[in-house]
Specification:
about 290 residues, alpha/beta, Pantoate--beta-alanine Ligase, Chain: A,domain 2
């Protein structure tokens, strides 16, 4: 049976009991509105651990003043039903639990947070690293699981754990796509039918770049131009960035002469979407 903790005392009590039973604790941090991508993280946690905690918290400090915090989907009851039998504990704190009155301590994100999302969403990774650090302190997991869909976030958390000497293994889990190629995201439910069709351009652009690399193209400028063309042909409303970067540092590269990561952030209607794909010059196209 899956238990629900809402307070610091409740989560600490549950973790003490699990530790007393010598159970290996896995944490899956989420903002709720769970979909198959989230559940793949829960399945990975189940495979590595024997006590799985899923946190559900829409974190206000990672949203900018003109972003979608107020309309971000919240469905705690449905999420808890979805997790029944899949996780031992759901930790769904209130804002007051995570940010008590007078809260003023924040984490300075690592260098890998500087570009891309860091430039487009000032303060975003400050909020992400702070809330993840707090979840680590409350849950004290042995392993934490993050999806590769938020690729830059995964690299930021990995660097933070190394820099701050946390004894936690960070496992990145593969991005999950819907049948039409669109990366699964809680924000997808905001898309209209017509917008959903246009949203397919993000994955189409990425896979076009992968095919071009498989056919011998190595020049990043030409690959980025090709991806931009796919997005514009689909009438994507605004493109924040299209980039090909080193997979660890996230610094731009000029040639795909080694495995690299293609990143896209774009707006379809009022919904901002991100996607990414590994480009490997030694792999065949798909």
């Amino acid at each position: 049976m899956t238990s629900l903790a809402r307070t610091e005392q409740e989560v600490r009590s549950a973790i003490r009991e699990a530790r007393g039973a010598h159970r290996r604790i896995g944490l899956v941090p989420t903002m709720g509105a769970l979909h198959a991508g989230h559940l793949s993280l829960v399945e990975a946690a189940r495979a590595h651990c024997d006590y799985v905690v899923v946190s559900i918290f829409v974190n206000p400090t990672q949203f900018g003043p003109h972003e979608d915090f107020d309309r971000y989907p919240r469905q705690l009851e449905e999420d808890c039903q979805c997790l029944e039998g899949r996780a031992e504990l759901v930790f769904a704190p209130t804002v007051e639990v995570m940010y008590p009155p007078g809260f003023s301590t924040f984490v300075e994100p690592p260098q890998v947070a500087r570009r891309w999302e860091g430039e487009c969403r000032p303060g975003h990774f400050r909020g992400v690293t702070t809330v993840v650090l707090k979840l680590f302190a409350l849950v004290q997991p042995d392993v934490a699981f993050f999806g590769e869909k938020d690729y830059q976030q995964l690299q930021v958390i990995r660097r933070m754990v190394v820099d701050l000497n946390f004894p936690i293994d960070i496992i990145g889990c593969p991005l999950i796509r819907d049948d039409d190629g669109v990366a699964l995201s809680s924000r997808n439910q905001h898309l209209s039918g017509e917008e959903r069709e246009r949203a397919r351009a993000l994955s189409a652009a990425l896979f076009a770049a992968r095919r071009a690399v498989a056919q011998g193209e190595r020049n990043v400028e030409r690959l980025v131009t090709q991806m931009m063309g796919v997005l514009r042909a689909a009438r994507v409303d605004r493109i924040d960035y299209v980039a090909i970067v080193d997979p660890e540092s996230l610094e731009p590269v000029e040639q795909v002469d080694r495995p690299s990561q293609a990143l896209i952030a774009a707006h379809v209607g009022s919904t901002r979407l991100i996607d990414n794909l590994r480009l490997d010059p030694c792999a065949s196209g798909s």
